[in-house]
Amino acid sequence: MEGQHQRRSSIAAIAAERPNLASIDPSMLDRLPAYSATLFEAKTQRRLTFEQIAEALGRSEVAVAALFYGQARATPEDAARLAQLLGLSAESPLASQMVGFPDRGRAGPMPPVEPLIYRLYEIVQNYGYAFKAVMNEKFGDGIMSAICFKSTVEKEVDETGAPWVVITLKGKW
Amino acid sequence: MEGQHQRRSSIAAIAAERPNLASIDPSMLDRLPAYSATLFEAKTQRRLTFEQIAEALGRSEVAVAALFYGQARATPEDAARLAQLLGLSAESPLASQMVGFPDRGRAGPMPPVEPLIYRLYEIVQNYGYAFKAVMNEKFGDGIMSAICFKSTVEKEVDETGAPWVVITLKGKW
Amino acid sequence: MEGQHQRRSSIAAIAAERPNLASIDPSMLDRLPAYSATLFEAKTQRRLTFEQIAEALGRSEVAVAALFYGQARATPEDAARLAQLLGLSAESPLASQMVGFPDRGRAGPMPPVEPLIYRLYEIVQNYGYAFKAVMNEKFGDGIMSAICFKSTVEKEVDETGAPWVVITLKGKW
Amino acid sequence: MEGQHQRRSSIAAIAAERPNLASIDPSMLDRLPAYSATLFEAKTQRRLTFEQIAEALGRSEVAVAALFYGQARATPEDAARLAQLLGLSAESPLASQMVGFPDRGRAGPMPPVEPLIYRLYEIVQNYGYAFKAVMNEKFGDGIMSAICFKSTVEKEVDETGAPWVVITLKGKW
Amino acid sequence: MEGQHQRRSSIAAIAAERPNLASIDPSMLDRLPAYSATLFEAKTQRRLTFEQIAEALGRSEVAVAALFYGQARATPEDAARLAQLLGLSAESPLASQMVGFPDRGRAGPMPPVEPLIYRLYEIVQNYGYAFKAVMNEKFGDGIMSAICFKSTVEKEVDETGAPWVVITLKGKW
Amino acid sequence: MEGQHQRRSSIAAIAAERPNLASIDPSMLDRLPAYSATLFEAKTQRRLTFEQIAEALGRSEVAVAALFYGQARATPEDAARLAQLLGLSAESPLASQMVGFPDRGRAGPMPPVEPLIYRLYEIVQNYGYAFKAVMNEKFGDGIMSAICFKSTVEKEVDETGAPWVVITLKGKW
Amino acid sequence: MEGQHQRRSSIAAIAAERPNLASIDPSMLDRLPAYSATLFEAKTQRRLTFEQIAEALGRSEVAVAALFYGQARATPEDAARLAQLLGLSAESPLASQMVGFPDRGRAGPMPPVEPLIYRLYEIVQNYGYAFKAVMNEKFGDGIMSAICFKSTVEKEVDETGAPWVVITLKGKW
Amino acid sequence: MEGQHQRRSSIAAIAAERPNLASIDPSMLDRLPAYSATLFEAKTQRRLTFEQIAEALGRSEVAVAALFYGQARATPEDAARLAQLLGLSAESPLASQMVGFPDRGRAGPMPPVEPLIYRLYEIVQNYGYAFKAVMNEKFGDGIMSAICFKSTVEKEVDETGAPWVVITLKGKW
Amino acid sequence: MEGQHQRRSSIAAIAAERPNLASIDPSMLDRLPAYSATLFEAKTQRRLTFEQIAEALGRSEVAVAALFYGQARATPEDAARLAQLLGLSAESPLASQMVGFPDRGRAGPMPPVEPLIYRLYEIVQNYGYAFKAVMNEKFGDGIMSAICFKSTVEKEVDETGAPWVVITLKGKW
Amino acid sequence: MEGQHQRRSSIAAIAAERPNLASIDPSMLDRLPAYSATLFEAKTQRRLTFEQIAEALGRSEVAVAALFYGQARATPEDAARLAQLLGLSAESPLASQMVGFPDRGRAGPMPPVEPLIYRLYEIVQNYGYAFKAVMNEKFGDGIMSAICFKSTVEKEVDETGAPWVVITLKGKW
User: Fold this and answer.
1) Which of E105, E162, G11, I78 is spaced 20 to 30 A from G27 at the CA atom?
2) E neighbours by CB contacts (3+ pairs under 8 Å)
3) Which whole number is the average pLDDT over B66-77?
4) Residues of D numbered 107-136 whose beta carbons fall under 8 angstroms of chain A's beta carbons: which are they?
5) The whole model's pTM is what?
């Protein structure tokens, strides 16, 4: 009886310590660069959120998460700070891999099967031409860069207490 | 010689009158609801931008453009104001079509072949899991609505004078 | 001024008369049997909901809507009642077309691009194996028929006043 | 002769003990999160049905099965109860994996090749627009959530003794 | 009242005269050769089943239906008999079209969206390797012709009164 | 010289002993359930044809082959007889796996790349609508079950000595 | 009675006059250049085979057929001879269209649904790497041109009287 | 310096010994049957060309290469000769695997990504209907077998010294 | 006889006047904007090459051809000069359409079926990662713009007299 | 504190030594030939750029990178020089693998998901027909070889200091 009670408690304790901590399932690793496993593992062990890492690196949370998923290149500065923060050996091949050139776009299938990511895809599917028409009227013919690009995710709470996600996509024209 | 000069001028005049006015090519009409052709034609004839229409309807530019592309439903209010603004007969079947239920998602192929829209798709492809991880850490497990959703497109100019597009996606969690 | 006011009123009037009346956009007709256009047009002119038609035919709303979209076969009884209700000539080729054998499955693309229908698809994608496992434990090896099949859509309101859709799928094992 | 008889009996005995117990074939594991293998193995060894587990957790059978297939997130409560019920170590990485954020939608290919799951897909393909039309008439423009969503599977027997599956899908509008 | 009664009767009468008569919906015609429309129209007007036509031509029902759908070539004999049976002018271009070389395989999409045809596809998907293994053991390495090929569809009723479809596929090895 | 002669003979001897024995290449195993490898290996070692196994189990050859490919569920009776016939331990996990619920449809890609299986696919592609039309005229609207379904493969020799494959597909309507 | 007899005869007569004359079904025309319809129509009216046309033009049958299907460019010589042979006006836009640059590759879908063409596709699928290996050993690394390319189709009859098709593909290395 | 010179020489020596010897890269093995690796390895070690093996077996080079890629079945004679020629143990499971029934069509993706094989695919895409039309005029309605089929690859040199590949495809009608 | 001779001559004359003049087949028009038909028609009637038009507009040939295919936007200057050069009315809707915002990417299917365009696609398929690696080493992480982009096509003749195409792609990093 | 400082420095040092050195992530290796891993590893260890290797081999950078990615065949000369430059044993199987015949086209998926490579793909998608039209007018009907083909990548800086990539594709006509 005791034992059972303790088991339940220890998991509740885990949950209390890390209410929302993005980690990575081993079955997803083959779509990611080799260093992703190491980074996520260290992040989980040290119970760090992307917000905390972003603050330490002086970059946005989205940029840091993109780096973990192999979609962005770490500067040597980033790599050094990450190694220190996550307790990784600076001499490990990992550090030099992170400053390599990313082979982007392989993190998941398209169309996305993950519902949350599908919603973003659906926005492009439904509003794509509306975005284009408004941009064309505002900027003329041209294109918004998806590379020279910054992004943030913020939380807003409306008057009824309901939370809203606010994603900002900022790309050079 | 005169004639030539005049021709050139008249086109230059057209260009001067409508520097950036989103219209629709006939070859795209079979992907859109029947009323899109009428709306775009009237918009072109009256030389109205989405910004002007949005102001008249009290909605965002993106929402108005989405309505023109058949991705959003007009309220009876919207329909009445649009009919007035564009000089359409309120008794025409168009009005009742606009307040019908949209069959969304058909405006263009996926993956997009239009480069500007592809850039948005690429953002989802590359940053999808990064967005998910950050949202999960900020909001827990859940989803951002692509339906209970608002969006704006703004223009910013940086210190070097270069223009940036700022897209804001705001969806209920 | 008068005129404008009237215009707005007449559309508001239309909206008042038909708050929620499913119709069909002409651009969708090539995916449907030839009689769909006629049925939907008559339904719109007579301002009938599927609920009203279902009551008159003694069938479920989903079954009637499926018949309009060419996914179900009308019995001669159904055809006769529909012809009467919608004011169609019983001698028209339409009547005999409706009692033909439907060429099912062409109403829209798969995966669905329409967000509402995509949500149903997503349920199959995410919960498919969960449904299978539970059915196998309850019924043994076998299959649920999608043909010998009934379905209803109901509206429920929870204690907070929020509406819920309740879809019931009932298939022979 | 004896030996043969016994062999047959022992398998018959197995069958008698577990008439219908959903398990998982090793060849399917690479589509599932790492903890699925452990959960299913323990479920098989303890000869527990989803019905029994659902009762112990106070959740629906579909929700529990979805959790086993990595499509739903366990609450810390769920994780603690599951660990106890299945005899898993609460300190194992499994527990913390189960309360991670699921990477949904990878359990099987779409269109489904499994006939039972295909039947559900076929319902969406054939009746998708019928569902949409009826929902639009009942609720107006909008969408049924596939995330804020509950589901049950029940067994009914009609007057001729034939079994019917009744799936209820309940989603917030 | 009279009128209504009559309307219902006339459709019921139609149904009585043609309980099961395969026809073709106009929306399907663009997937078929030009003569299909004429043949099906004449078949419907004369209320002929494929069984009756097959008897008149001395061929199997499946072969005749395949000819109507443009999947088989009519012999001059077939064409002459069909013209006579369906009241078509023998000098019409139709006759010479029917004895042309069919451009097979375009009657519908693959995978099939029509549920009845999907069931046949599913048999190939699930049992394909089982058929191959049994054929290889019976015939050695080789192939069953899908061209030098005959097929019948028969109806059987089992002891409980339930109907069964029996399809026989006979191909040269 | 002797040696060479003997080598040739021993292979010829193998061929003489097993003129036509379906086996399975290791490269195909990842598409099949875990027990398929064991069953095929034992079948090869004991030099049993599906005909011999089918006779021992009292089932059709196609059903037995489908079981080997993981497309059908073994009854406990089947499992016990197979274990005895193939010399497998009845206590092995294999036995309980075989009476699990199959995850059907994964044995090979669709469209099939194997020419023999492609021929069956081609029959569905070319004759699908012909089968449907004939079935509809014979049975009315409905569907042939691909689950409540039996199948045989027979060999016929015509008057010129040429072999024909006769596949019979029998499904409940 | 007389009439019937005559009808049958006239079709038989047609068949006798043109035992094997490739024509084109109207439903295929949208995949072909505009002049294909005219060429095939004239060929049918004059009852010319590709063999006869090839002889008149001094080119291979395959080349002529490819020209009719819009896959090859006519030289002005070819165009002039074809116009004369088929009785076309040399001033018609057709002549200049034929000497335009073909937009190749649109004649049919890939993978082919036409069984005869699928057989050629299957040869590439099954023997592709075998051809490559043999060519590499004979020619070294390189490629066989599909543009600087000639092809013939011949008929051979073996000792048992069975016909064989012999296709020769000759491409510059 | 010496060392360097020797290194270069030894590789040049290798090249001299085997100017054109088709081998197989390990990354391709998972698309091929298990015995392909062994056959290719032995072929490379003994420095045999397909021409030499074909001569020893009395079959065409294409047939032998197809056998190496798992697209054709070895006769027991072939297997015995190959075992002798390549120094394989006749008792190894390899021999019995080679006389098994091939699971054809998996050697590479379609459409081919290998440029040399793509050229053959392109010939089918561009000339498919031309081949069909010429065959239909020469043979009537029917099909060329891709199974009862022989093929050769020859080298021709034209008057300018340029090499041409001549592929002959000979299939029973 | 005379007539024949003249016919041949007149076509030869056409060919002499326009040795190489890119035009457009009507069957391709539905993939292009509405004004493409008019532009190509006028270009053909006036027998103008892209080189001549490019010179008149002061732009590269590739840019002008892209404009004709609807992939680039005409400046008002371009539109005025084109209208003059091609004899189009400056007041026609065409002029304003050309200065609209192009809906790019629809000119043809991907992967390309046209062999010439496929070769360019194949270069991307085969050399894509090689280009990326070299660019990354030369420029660091980043991207080459496909929008802020210029291109030319030149002809070179090597010492053996063989012509070479030289395509230059110049994009901002 | 010291330690941290050093860590940061050592990574900065790495970055300083290799500002831009293309390497390969292990997760990409299964798309490449077996020798790619060895080549890239040696290149990284010796800190060689493709420019340096190209100079040593007397070939273009693109050609060398293509060789590393398995898209080109090494001459024995190339192999010998590479072995020397990278310190590989000339007797290793690697050397003989490199002079084998490449199985081209497998380096990445199409359409490309890597943004930099997608830009090249987009150029083909958007400008494909423009390139074809200009080439046809310059060269007549024909094709540009993608095999008998050379390519360079150069860096240019414009008057504003902005870098431009200049890719030259030169293929035999």
Assistant:
1) G11
2) C, D, F, G, H
3) 91
4) 110
5) 0.92
